[in-house]
Amino acid sequence: MEIITLNRKVLEKNDETAQSIREMLRTRKILTINMMSAPGSGKTSIIEKTVENMSGSSVAVITGDVQTANDAERLTACGIPVVQLITCGACHLDSTMIQGALDKLDLTAVDVLFIENIGNLICPAGFDLGENLRVIVLSTAEGTDKPLKYPAMFEKADAVVINKIDLLENVNFSLEEAKRFIHELNPAVPVFEISCTSEKGIEQWCAWLLKNLKKYPVLA
Amino acid sequence: MEIITLNRKVLEKNDETAQSIREMLRTRKILTINMMSAPGSGKTSIIEKTVENMSGSSVAVITGDVQTANDAERLTACGIPVVQLITCGACHLDSTMIQGALDKLDLTAVDVLFIENIGNLICPAGFDLGENLRVIVLSTAEGTDKPLKYPAMFEKADAVVINKIDLLENVNFSLEEAKRFIHELNPAVPVFEISCTSEKGIEQWCAWLLKNLKKYPVLA
């Protein structure tokens, strides 16, 4: 009971900061995407491929990890402006961390801001970061039942990306069943089937982002 | 600051309960293994294969999930006594939950108790469940850098299982590098390379469990 009370206070403060971040980003016309997934689902690779395929838009990234700046180094090598948040054990990003990262980013020419959350299918679900869109990444190697096991993530998603479809012949994963589970939780959510290795599906995913970028700031 | 204080209190209470669970299990000569991993690394499959290959020992399982009893159903279908804990959103198991599950298990003939933790590479690391051994499972599909990104899990492991080695030709994963990262964090930890599909490495993993079962209760 004590914990629940504290969590409520923490969440209220988080939501206030998130709302002020969202308003600031709206004023600057920056579309912001909170990407969440289990560890190793391929969030960084998807952002790399997205930047390659959206050359008309300027992308920046805030990436969170418990330890290491590996993801930031990969993204910087692709010429992407990036701030790495190292949480030293914390299991999710919160809006105060995002506020701190935004202070370090030059937002002048940015059209799209990706927030690459900590690899965790549970805790990040409860924390609004001021984003416009929540995207959940699921890798085919993780198994078909993940939407059922981690429903909070999938219920609130604006899009689901099923990554590593190049592994479909080698893993026990049913695309049809996974999509059925996802749509039972979130009936209208778009699901993109992609591979960062073969680049299959990347075009459709980027087209969806561009469509959202065009209708923003009406969106939020 | 407030949060840290509360976490300390929670952890102290957790550790007390864990200690009393460990003593009870020691009296009954039950070797207890806390299995932790990211979502979809294959914990349930490993337990299934372990039971098949350790016919001389009696195994029971406490399995934790945020939602669904899928894992318990799979294990029950293999004839394994199992209690499913559904945490309804909580991101890790704690010792009070284990105490509740133990009250529902007939421990009379049990030699080995697996606790299959929530799929999460961060939060479960801080919670002693009264186990004797902590085993971390890493799937080759998750990428080589996971030990560096989630060091708390790997630092405290008594063994690391690298699962899905049948996918090595299809994923970007280096066994040598992964083992180097693991041993930088935890120099003497045994690492088992296995596949539940081809059954490669299962024998060595089971031999290690049997060795630990024989030296228990000296172990804890």
What does the model show?
The structure is a homodimer of 220-residue chains. In chain A, helix 1 runs parallel beside helix 4 and helix 2 crosses helix 8. In chain A, helix 3 (70-77) links the parallel strand 2 and strand 3 (82-86). By secondary structure, chain A is an alpha/beta fold. In chain A, 40% of the residues lie in helices and 19% in strands. Chain A has eight helices and seven strands; from the N terminus they run αβαβαβαββααβαβα. Chain A binds chain B through residues 2-3, 6, 10, 38-40, 65-68, 70, 89, 91, 118-123, 139, 141-143, 145-146, 148-152, 164, 166-167, 170-171, and chain B through 2-3, 6, 10, 38-40, 65-68, 70, 89, 91, 118-123, 139, 141-143, 145-146, 148-152, 164, 166-167, 170-171.
What is this structure's SSE topology?
The structure is a homodimer of 220-residue chains.
Chain A: H1 2-27, E1 31-37, H2 43-53, E2 59-65, H3 70-77, E3 82-86, H4 95-102, E4 112-119, E5 133-139, H5 146-149, H6 151-155, E6 159-163, H7 175-185, E7 191-193, H8 202-215
Parallel strand pairs in A: 1-4, 1-5, 2-3, 2-4, 5-6, 6-7
Helix pairs in contact in A: 1-4, 2-8
Tally of strands of chain A: 7
Q: Helix and strand succession of chain A?
A: HEHEHEHEEHHEHEH
Q: Helix fraction of chain A?
A: 25-40%
Beta-strand content bin of chain A: 15-25%
Strand order of the largest sheet of chain A: 3-2-4-1-5-6-7
Largest interface, chains and sizes: A-B, 36 and 36 residues
Q: Which stretches of chain A of 5+ consecutive residues score pLDDT under 50?
A: 1-6
> What's the overall average pLDDT of chain A, rounded?
91
Counting DSSP H or I runs of 4 or more residues, the number of helices of chain A is 8
Query: Over all CA atoms, what is the radius of gyration of chain A?
Result: 17 Å
Looking at how many chains there are and whether they match, the oligomeric state comes to homodimer
Shape of chain A: globular
Structural class of chain A: alpha/beta
Q: How far apart are the termini of chain A?
A: 34 Å
The biggest sheet of chain A amounts to: 7 strands, parallel
